[in-house]
Sequence to fold (161 residues):
Amino acid sequence: MRKIFLLIVIMILGVIPAFAGALSQGEQAPAFSLKSMDGKKVALSDFKGKVVVIGMFHICVPCMNQAMEFNKVRKQLSEDQVVVLGINTNGDSREAVAQYLSKFPEKVEFPYLTDPEKGVYKSYSQRDMPTVLIIDQKGILNARAPAVGADQLVPYIKKML
Fold:
C-alpha cells in the first residue's frame, strides 16, 4: 500500500511541472510573429481589436479535422471582427507542412503559419493536440480547449462580439 502511494506521488510530481506556468484564461496572450505558408509575416499584434481564434496544430488527422471546422467558422463570421489562424507548433519544415496541407479534403480558408522554433508551443504550454485558443479584442486569452466543432465555436465567439 505504501509503495503504491509513493508511486502515485512520484507520478503526480512528474506531471505537475509540465503544466506549471501554463497560460491561463484571463492572462495576456504572449506575442508572436511567424511566417504564413505564402511567406507573409503575421504577428498577433496585427489583430488588436479583433477576436483571434488559433489552432495549435501538428501533422495529424485530428488537427486536419479541426482545420476543417475552422473553415466553417471562417465562412460564418466576418473577417472584420474575427481572425482565424492555424499554427504548426511542432517545428515541422515548411515543405512537410505544405505536403500535409495538400492532402486536406479542402483548402484552408485562413492563414496557416509555421513555427520552426516551437515558440508558440512553449509560450502557450500546449497540452492537447490540437489546441484551440480564443483571444479577445484586448489580447487576453478568453478560452483554451482541445478540438471543438464550429457548431460550438461560432455561438461562443458571437457572444464576444
